[in-house]
Every structure is written in C-alpha cells, then in structure tokens.
Amino acid sequence: MPLIEAKDLVKEFRRVRPKTGAFSTVRTLFSRDFEVTRAVDGVGFAVEAGELVGYLGPNGAGKSTTIKMLTGILTPTSGTVEVAGVVPWRQRERNARNIGVVFGQRSQLWWDLPLRDSFRMIGRLYRVAPARYAQNLDRFVEVLGLASFLDTPVRQLSLGQRMRGDLAAAMLYEPPILYLDEPTVGLDVIAKERIREFVAGLNAEQGTTVLLTTHDMDDVERLCRRLVLIDHGRVLYDGPVAPLKEKYAPHRELVVQLASPAEVVVPNADVVRAEEGRVWLSFDPRTTPAASLIAEVSAKYEVTDLSLVEPDLEGVIRRMYLEREG
Amino acid sequence: MLWQLRAGLILLGGAFRATAQYRANIFSNMAAGAAFQTVGLIGLWVILNRFGEVAGWTMSDVALMYGLRLTAHAAWAVPLNQLMEIEHQVREGLIDRYLVRPVNPLVQLLTGRVRLNVFGDLAAGLILLAVAASRADVDWTPARLAFLVLAILGGGMIEGGFQLGLAAISFRTLGTSEMRFTVDTIFNLYGNYPAKIFSVPGQIALSVLPVAFVAYLPTCALLGRDSGLPLPDWAGYAAPGLGLLIATGGYLFWRSQLRNYQGAGS
Ligand SMILES: Nc1ncnc2c1ncn2[C@@H]1O[C@H](COP(=O)(O)OP(=O)(O)O)[C@@H](O)[C@H]1O
Ligand SMILES: [Mg+2]
C-alpha cells in the first residue's frame, strides 16, 4: 500500500465578491457571488515509502495547494487523500506526528525565540524522549551547521540559516514523511548544497519519504529519481527522470541576445522563452544543424550574443510544456 | 484533553518567554486594563449617587450585578483574548502552521501570545464583586456562593461562545472584527444595567437575546427579585446551563468553519 495516495484531488478557492453599503458584512456573509479559482483539478498519484519525488510545475500550477491538502492544511473540494493510513484534514493531530513540513516562504519556528528554544518546544510538543532528542539535535547541528546561531532569535537569522533551522525542526521527531515546498528558493549555493545533502542523507539512511517542489533543476537532478509534473492543476507526467530526458533530449537550446527585443520567427526552431531581448530557441540537431540555425537567426536579426545549451532538465520540461500548449 | 492542556502550557511558556523582553509593556498594559474598568465604575457610581436607585435597585444591588458582569467578561476575555488575532492570522496564512502540529489549532491560537491587560479586567471585576457581595442584601450560604461561581463561568461562556462563533467566520476570509466589537458593545450596554430600566420592546429583546442571562437574571435570582422580563422565575438559575450550551455551539461552529480556511494564497 502506498504511503501517500491522492485520488482525483480538486481544490477550488472561493473568494466572495465583497459587498458595499448598508449591512455589507452580513450581506457578504450570505452572498453566493463567488470568484472561483480551480487551483488543483483532478490530481492523482501514489508515493511508496522511501521514494524521493519531485513535484514540479510552473508558477501557479497548483503545487503548493496540493501539498497543503496532503499536509491537512486545506480541505479538498473533492477527491481523497490518505497519508500513512490517515485522512490528513480529518485527523490533523495524528497526521502531524507522521509528517515534517518545510515551506520556503514561511517559517514554522517561533519568531521571537532563540532557535534552540524553538527546537525544545518542538521536542516537547511531539513528545520526543529526551535521550533521542539530544541525539537528533546533536546530529542536525553538525550536518546542517547550526552551532553558530543556535542561540540567536529566529527573526535575526538569515534566510539560509532559518531554512536549515526549519529543516531540523521538521525532522527532530523523526517523521517518516517530509514535505518540502521550495526549500532552496532564494538561498546561496552553499546553503542549497547543505540542504540537498541533508535531504539526500535522510532519504538514503533513514528511508524518509520526501515530496519536494522546487524551481531549481539542480535540486531535482541531484535528488529526485521520480518526477510528477503538473500544470493548470493537472498531472502532465508521472515517472522516472531518465525517459523524460530521453524523449526530449534530442533538442538543444540556442540562447540569443538581440540588440532590441523582437518577435523571433525562424523555421525548424521554436521559441520556448523570451525576456528582455533574450530568446531561447529549441531545435532538433538531427534535422537542423546548429550552425545553419545560427546563420539563419543572425541573418534575420541583430544578435549581440549567443550560446548553445546542452539539454538539462529545465530545458526538457520547458519543451514539454510548450508541446502541451501548442 | 489533558494533552491539550499540557501542550497549551508548553506553548504559553514559549509565548511568555517571547514577550518577556517587553516586560515593562506587560505591566503597563495590565494597569491600563484596570484603569479602563475603574473609569467605567466611577461613571456608574456617579449615576447611582445622583439618583440613589434605578428601577428599585439600590446602589449595592447594581454593584453586585456590575461586578458579576465584569468578572464574567474577564472569565472569557482571559482565555479567549487572542481571538482578536484571528483575522490577521487568517489573512497572512499563519493558521497553516497550527494545522500541521499535534495540538488543537484553537489551543495554539489562544496560547500564541500573552496579553496581561485582561488580567487587569479580572482584578477589577473580582474586587468590585467582593465588595458588592459583602454589602448586598444576600445571605451567602455555600449554595449561593457556588451559584455565583457558576453564574460567572456561565456568563463567560455565553459571551465567549458568541465571540468564538463570530471569530470562526474569519476562516472565510471575511472581516469579523466589526461584528465582534458590536456584539461586545451590546453585552456591555445592555448587560451592565438592570433590564427593568429598558422599555417593553427592549425587555422582550433582552429575554430573547442571552444578554440578560450573563448578569441580570442571575443577580435577580440571588437577590430574590422579580426580573420584570417575560421569563419564569427560575430563568436566572438556568444561566450556567445556557452558557455551557452556547459555548459548545460556538466551538462546534468553529470546528465546522475551520474547513473553510483557504490559506493566504502562496
Ligand atoms: N488562498 C488562496 N485564495 C485564492 N487563490 C489561491 C489561494 N492559494 C492559491 N491560489 C491560486 O491557486 C493557483 C495555484 O496556486 P499554488 O498552488 O500556490 O501554485 P504553485 O505553488 O504551483 O505556484 C494560483 O492561481 C493561485 O493564485
Ligand atoms: Mg508554490
């Protein structure tokens, strides 16, 4: 039986259009005039114990909303979730003991307390035996490098320090499942690497099941063996990383910097991304040699710089989203 | 239940340590709470001194009722004062973390911060109640004393149950502070004076609304007076039961509204 199982998961956000005038609060309360956003639209997947799954998609795809339903924060509009035999939103307190949660945007720690004090509160709230607690804390302090700021109030920590603190707090009670929602966003290379190492270690040594959302393809390449890709609240791909790469790998990307922004149209290549005069072109080198594409582009547009990019996962995913939409 | 209490104490300890750096603040807040209530008391005293009595109620009768009301108010405001944070916490998505911890979210909200000014209210209420009770024309048998305690808790639960239910509407990302303030004002306006002084429609409204059950009806029961409301004589004794009912209703409503929580949107 899978450890995490979501079936036909749907979440609609409703915002009542506010009323104005007399008794506005009461009229808003009983209003049926909703603005509905269908953030998650029939997502289903199953994760076995010990897996490390990347949950990816463009901004607004519904990743965070899915995670919030898996963690029990949000109640699904329809569909079912079961995590370690528990329906998260129905049995929140039982579910809480099975999961660790880290949101890149928002800390779970006590803002005004020293990191050490936050950890102690977590230890007591999750009823971790003192010996076990001391042992875990020592290990995390070493692996995540927390020693220098253990006695600093959380509000004074840098983003990278805070994230490492959050990760330690999420794992102090050794939950079998860890959800990470953009844990490396905004961090420097060294902090990112530390976090990746920690997560990889948890998965390999303790068998912690991890579900990770990220925009950093290095996170994915380094950590995930399986990907679930979503867009507009629907699953586009669910499977291992390798075949996805193979299918789209024939494509290379040519990045050109134009002297002035322009709509680029060239045969045998697709524009996959464009911003401020920089254009990403995807092409198949088996039918279109790079040299001829470069010649074609420079003949039609004023190019100030260009580079050829080997296929990485990000390019693969961009390409895939493009085909879906096209 | 026992676990929720223990977890609440752990969280309260953290909240206390977090605010300990603003200790000066804590005590000035407490003093402000007491001062605010003292001003209200002086106002009442001035009115009574001028008229001697209101609707046949002597100064010490009214003081007993006022003390009961103040103490009942503090009885809900002390544990539930953090309800005033709810709108902000819903809007900012701060409820998220309560929902992934192994403690009742309400317990977590209520123990999020220590606010000592409500203890100023409690102190003012208890002092007034003690003075008024000793001077009122009541033979304080153990049974009457026990009823007084139950009436305080019941009154607190009546007001607190309403406040909890209203706060729960905030989960639908609606502003509720106005409504909560209005309800508090109704309880303050109509709960602090003998219901007899109001006109007939006002009295009927009061016997339907539970306002009169907070302090007026229990005080009538203690003093052995006719309430003048279209309610049976034993209505005052039913107040603690009604409180339990309303508090339970408020909590069940809170629980049902929690599923409407939508987070802050990324
Ligand atoms: N609390 C909310 N209220 C209204 N809309 C929301 C809320 N949370 C998310 N959304 C909307 O739902 C969609 C999916 O959001 P989200 O799950 O945060 O995407 P992602 O994490 O993939 O970037 C977006 O259109 C977002 O604006
Ligand atoms: Mg997100």
Structure description:
- The complex is a heterodimer of chains A (326) and B (266).
- Chain A is an alpha/beta fold and 326 residues long.
- Chain A has 2 domains: 4-245, P-loop containing nucleotide triphosphate hydrolases (Rossmann fold, 3-Layer(aba) Sandwich), CATH 3.40.50.300; 250-310.
- Helix content of chain A is 36%, strand content 29%.
- In chain A, strands 5-6-7-3-8-9 form a 6-stranded mixed sheet, sandwiched between helices. A 4-stranded antiparallel sheet of chain A has the order 11-12-10-13, with helices on both faces.
- Chain A is globular and about 70 Å long.
- Chain B has 266 residues and is an all-alpha fold.
- Chain B has one domain.
- The chains are: A alpha/beta (326), B mainly alpha (266).
- The interface between A and B is medium-sized, with 36 and 33 residues.
- Bound molecules: adenosine-5'-diphosphate and magnesium ion.
| Poorly predicted segments of chain A | none
Q: Which CATH architecture of the largest domain in chain A is right? A: 3-Layer(aba) Sandwich
- Number of continuous helical runs of chain A: 11
H-E string of chain A: EHEEHEHEHHHEHEHEEHEEEHEH
**How are the strands ordered across the major sheet of chain A?**
5-6-7-3-8-9
Record the strand order, biggest sheet of chain B.
1-2
Q: What would CATH call the homologous superfamily of the largest domain in chain A?
A: P-loop containing nucleotide triphosphate hydrolases
List all distinct small molecules, including ions and cofactors, that are bound in this structure: adenosine-5'-diphosphate, magnesium ion
Percentage of residues assigned to helices of chain A = 25-40%
pLDDT averaged over residues of chain A? 90
**Looking at the structure, what is the overall shape of chain A?**
globular
Average pLDDT score of chain B: 86
